């Protein structure tokens, strides 16, 4: 078949399918706004169906695979789309949902005549692939047809032309779904079993965040009923990042998933008993002046996130739990007696895994009931005596320790074992802050862990937890989150090479993986970077190489662009003028939808934003407490740019003072934010991290 006739045939089919989709959309019943519960549930289903059909109307499908099961006489074309669609009368499948087992063939197949299999709920299905085709449909119109495999023909270019086309596009201000171009190594992660904690180490731009979001959509489809969106949670590094990724899940037809930061979530669990001390911003402390590695390694935040510190918290909690059984009997009047042995007996009927404060409150109620029944049995009526007995009971129960999380934490911080781990100055400061109900980020993991152990988790256990940028998490944070699940079902992703928060995060994935039973964990590495051009990735790899041995370079997708530019300015004023000129030139070129000027510090970014404003250029200056990401032109400190991406990036101060020898990870993060264009400016000496100026201009 010629390319021309294949296009016509596919265009005709798109029209046919669209007729079906539009008919089904028209036939969705009227909206229900009443109070009947069953009708409300039906309305919800109608609404979800409508959303799926609307997605299908814009782009009914993106792929076709002709698969011949070994037991069948002929191949059958399967069209893969974001939402499954069936013919309303015949029920024939017109579009297969990308998450269906058979759709995995589309992602996993990379050519060849040998039989392939996919896993179906009824077992493995074997067959051969006859055709793999990409189709680009925009707003219901077929625009492109690209075959990546035709059986019996010379192998088509397997460098995925369609993928390159997609990667070459400019980006808007939100991360997008990748269902049409998911790669084999990503698909394997997305389709991993629900009862696994999957750890993903992936180089910058390898699609970790995107893959994690697609995995959620997959799990909701594959385990419909057993897993619910309301019982899933995504932890992201900050609110601006949450805003940036907020478009992906709705586009995949997924709603209602809690998306939060660890700090916000922890304060919520602590019922806002404490709040973060605004006077201390760890970013300002660690990034606004040069800090040594030594200082980071010994930071109190590292200690408070460690398992050694958790062991002390556990010990304190065990002692607290043991104190549930008082040493003395309760004997309010001669002959009226509850002995510790009786309390042990009472508690033996209790669930010992229940949180301490719940068991305590049940014990206090039990003592009250006992006093009541003794009173009734003796038919007493003296009101004064009754109130005396009540007072005695109160005095007795007061000896059974009762804590809020911050009280127990404060008391722990006073103990000698803690003083051995942490500098006295640091614990004293924390205790003082706690009195004013203020904490620092590193106190949240121990506090929320204590809260969960004392009071339990107030919600249904999470079906699935996603942790993005997990290299910045401490083992203690993961331990706290484990308290909110019956069994581990997680997607934990990050990149140790982007671990710029050395004062808090991990050095090796083992530190987190070892906290879970081995059989429940899976570890994956993603080495290919999809975001940036080859030139940018090669340049970023050189920066990383400056860290010495043990680094893993990112493997670029074969997408070539412009050389990275490194430009020297003789004075600082000239450097700032060059920033303005570069931005003007980029804007004029019309090539880039999103651009960023990255500075080493917040202060340098303020200066740059000021210069741009003087030149009449509108830019949004990103600060650490930012909630929203607006796209367009952004000025952002390098340490806040993690996770984001821009068509063009200008690193405005690539001199040796701004990026010292300890800043390789930070500069790597900065460079890998760029999709198509990267330029570095410096005044004075170029940072030694850039050992080979690539295109000195
Ligand atoms: N299979 C793919 N097809 C098309 N685009 C992809 C694919 N995988 C990743 N991308 C694109 O690559 C870019 C990087 O993805 P993402 O932000 O998820 O990567 P990341 O590994 O989380 O990056 P970082 O660690 O730098 O934050 C995004 O623009 C994403 O759409």
Automatic annotation (TrEMBL):
<feature type="binding site">
    <location>
        <begin position="202"/>
        <end position="209"/>
    </location>
    <ligand>
        <name>ATP</name>
    </ligand>
</feature>
<dbReference type="InterPro" id="IPR000212">
    <property type="entry name" value="DNA_helicase_UvrD/REP"/>
</dbReference>
<dbReference type="InterPro" id="IPR014017">
    <property type="entry name" value="DNA_helicase_UvrD-like_C"/>
</dbReference>
<feature type="domain" description="UvrD-like helicase ATP-binding">
    <location>
        <begin position="181"/>
        <end position="533"/>
    </location>
</feature>
<dbReference type="InterPro" id="IPR027785">
    <property type="entry name" value="UvrD-like_helicase_C"/>
</dbReference>
<dbReference type="Pfam" id="PF00580">
    <property type="entry name" value="UvrD-helicase"/>
</dbReference>
<keyword id="KW-0378">Hydrolase</keyword>
<dbReference type="InterPro" id="IPR027417">
    <property type="entry name" value="P-loop_NTPase"/>
</dbReference>
<protein>
    <recommendedName>
        <fullName>DNA 3'-5' helicase</fullName>
        <ecNumber>5.6.2.4</ecNumber>
    </recommendedName>
</protein>
<dbReference type="InterPro" id="IPR014016">
    <property type="entry name" value="UvrD-like_ATP-bd"/>
</dbReference>
<dbReference type="Pfam" id="PF13538">
    <property type="entry name" value="UvrD_C_2"/>
</dbReference>
<dbReference type="Pfam" id="PF13361">
    <property type="entry name" value="UvrD_C"/>
</dbReference>
<keyword id="KW-0067">ATP-binding</keyword>
<keyword id="KW-0413">Isomerase</keyword>
<keyword id="KW-0547">Nucleotide-binding</keyword>
<keyword id="KW-0347">Helicase</keyword>
């Amino acid at each position: 078949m010629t390319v021309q006739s294949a296009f016509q045939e596919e265009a005709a089919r798109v029209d046919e399918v669209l007729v079906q989709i539009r008919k089904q959309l028209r036939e969705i019943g009227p909206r229900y706004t009443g109070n009947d519960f069953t009708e409300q549930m039906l309305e919800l289903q109608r609404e979800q169906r409508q959303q799926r059909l609307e997605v299908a109307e814009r782009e009914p499908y993106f792929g076709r695979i002709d698969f011949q099961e070994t037991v069948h006489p002929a191949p059958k074309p399967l069209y893969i789309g974001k939402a499954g669609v069936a013919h309303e009368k015949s029920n024939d499948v017109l579009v297969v949902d990308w998450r269906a087992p058979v759709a995995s063939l589309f992602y996993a197949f990379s050519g060849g005549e040998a039989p392939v299999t996919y896993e179906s709920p009824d077992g493995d299905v074997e067959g051969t692939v006859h055709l793999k085709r990409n189709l680009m449909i925009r707003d219901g119109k077929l625009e492109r047809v690209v075959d990546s495999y035709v059986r019996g023909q010379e192998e088509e270019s397997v460098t995925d032309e369609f993928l390159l086309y997609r990667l070459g596009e400019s980006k808007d201000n939100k991360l997008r779904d990748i269902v049409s171009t998911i790669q084999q190594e990503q698909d394997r992660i997305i389709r991993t079993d629900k009862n696994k904690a999957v750890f993903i180490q992936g180089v910058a731009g390898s699609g970790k965040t995107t893959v994690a979001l697609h995995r959620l959509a997959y799990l909701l489809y594959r385990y419909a009923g057993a897993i619910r969106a309301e019982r899933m949670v995504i932890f992201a590094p900050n609110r601006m990042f949450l805003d940036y990724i907020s478009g992906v899940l709705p586009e995949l037809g997924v709603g209602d998933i809690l998306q939060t930061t660890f700090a916000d979530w922890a304060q919520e669990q602590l019922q806002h008993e404490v709040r973060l001390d605004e006077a201390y911003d760890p970013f300002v402390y660690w990034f606004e002046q040069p800090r040594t590695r030594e200082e980071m390694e010994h930071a109190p935040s590292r200690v408070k996130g460690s398992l050694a510190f958790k062991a002390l918290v556990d010990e304190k909690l065990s002692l607290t739990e043991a104190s549930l059984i008082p040493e003395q009997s309760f004997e309010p009047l001669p002959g009226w007696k509850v002995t510790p042995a009786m309390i042990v007996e009472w508690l033996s009927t209790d669930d010992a895994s229940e949180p301490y404060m719940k068991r305590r409150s049940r014990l206090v109620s039990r003592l009250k009931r006992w006093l009541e029944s003794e009173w009734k049995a003796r038919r007493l009526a003296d009101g004064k005596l009754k109130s005396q007995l009540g007072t005695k009971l109160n005095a007795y129960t007061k000896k059974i320790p009762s804590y809020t999380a911050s009280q127990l934490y404060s008391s722990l911080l006073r103990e000698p074992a803690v003083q051995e781990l942490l500098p006295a100055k640091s614990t004293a400061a924390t205790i003082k802050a706690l009195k004013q109900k203020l904490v620092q980020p590193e106190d949240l993991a121990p506090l929320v862990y204590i809260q969960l152990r004392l009071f339990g988790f107030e919600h249904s256990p999470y079906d699935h937890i996603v942790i993005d940028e997990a290299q910045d998490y401490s083992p203690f944070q993961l331990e706290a989150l484990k308290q909110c699940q019956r069994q581990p079902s997680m997607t934990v992703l990050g990149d140790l090479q982007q671990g710029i928060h050395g004062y808090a995060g991990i050095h090796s994935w083992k530190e987190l993986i070892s906290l879970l039973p081995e059989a429940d964990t899976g570890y994956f590495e993603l080495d290919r970077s999809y975001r940036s051009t080859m030139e940018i990735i090669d340049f970023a790899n050189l920066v990383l190489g400056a860290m010495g041995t043990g680094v893993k370079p990112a493997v670029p997708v074969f997408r070539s662009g412009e050389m990275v530019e490194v430009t020297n300015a003789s004075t600082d004023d000239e450097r700032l003028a060059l920033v303005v000129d570069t931005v003007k030139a980029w804007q004029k070129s019309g090539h880039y939808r999103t651009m960023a000027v990255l500075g080493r510090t917040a202060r340098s970014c303020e200066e740059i934003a000021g210069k741009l404003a003087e030149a009449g250029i509108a830019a949004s200056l990103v600060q650490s407490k930012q909630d929203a990401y607006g796209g367009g032109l952004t000025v952002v400190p390098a340490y806040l740019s993690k996770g984001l991406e821009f068509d063009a990036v200008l690193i405005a101060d690539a001199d040796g003072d701004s990026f010292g020898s300890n800043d390789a990870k930070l500069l790597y993060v900065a460079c890998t934010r760029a999709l198509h264009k990267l330029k570095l400016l410096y005044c004075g000496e170029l940072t030694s991290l850039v050992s080979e100026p690539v295109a000195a201009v």
